[in-house]
Amino acid sequence: MKRLQLLENWIAQQFPEKSFTLQPASADASFRRYYRVTLGDETLIAMDAPPPHEDCAPFVQVAQLLAGTAHVPVVQASDMKRGFLLLSDLGDLTYLQALTDRPENAKALYADATRALIDMQLIMPLDGMPVYDENLLRYELNLFPEWYVARHLQIDLTANQKTVLEQTFGRILQNNLSQPRVFVHRDYHSRNLMVTTPNPGILDFQDAVLGPITYDLVSLLKDAYICWDETHILDWAIRYWEGARRAGLSVSSDFGNFYRDFEWMGVQRHIKVLGIFARLAYRDGKQSYLNDMPLVMTYLRKACERYQELRPFLKLLDELDNNESSDERVGYTF
């Protein structure tokens, strides 16, 4: 029986006395699918996370961890074996849509998102949460040569280029692993934040880990799906830093040092994201992610330009761009 029919039958079992309609709500970069369930005047969100590709348990566990601290969906019913969840509905207005339609509201929306981020980072204890350790950070970095360079650009790195890549990865990891560890959402950006009351509603937190304190701020301010002037990014980063210090989080007392950590964390994330977007396009057939690569590459290049230790990697990016055939160019504009 098809997944959708299984899901409909399961929902019917939860509401034997009610009729309902089911409409697609959204899909994400994984195998998960979401549907809006309408029962009269009430709506819920049904998550379909097909085993063995997905596991509902982390979502439920993190939702329980965040309950009372952040505005997240409440799990109303679950079938963990078949991969079905029924969740409270946080609406359909994402930050991305709201910011695109009304960019003048950005200051207020980012202030809300920053406050919510600090609240999540204050959650203690985090015993048993997966750690964003060297193995996971390095695994993510290695998506770049495997999927972006080899598959997307179809380039074989030279021995010297491989050495530059490895040395760069080592420097990045040294910075990332030296940062204080807190709760990390891992995808805290405009597609996963909803405009709600209280604001924001937070989605897609099932991959949360204990990791570097600047990671989620990078996801929020250097968003792969919406771009802001660097003056705005700097202003919002300062406001976060001030709020984090007042809250007692372990951020550097010197903003310059904090911002360096923020940018180096961004380098890790953007290298990873280029690899993930290539994998989504070529392995999973989600070609639209290729359109999001230029902005991510722009973030990456700008950060590399600012730090001497990253200049060899910037030179490598130039070499890859120059070696790419005209037929395969994505059309980067820097």
Automatic annotation (TrEMBL):
Superkingdom as given in the UniProt entry: Bacteria
Gene3D superfamilies recorded: 3.90.1200.10, Phosphorylase Kinase, domain 1
UniProt entry keywords in alphabetical sequence: ATP-binding, Nucleotide-binding
Pfam families: APH
Stretches that traverse the bilayer: none
SUPFAM superfamilies named in the record: Protein kinase-like (PK-like) (SSF56112)
Ranges where the Aminoglycoside phosphotransferase domain occurs: 21-240
Molecular-function GO term, any one: ATP binding
Protein name: Aminoglycoside phosphotransferase domain-containing protein
Organism per entry: Nitrosomonas aestuarii
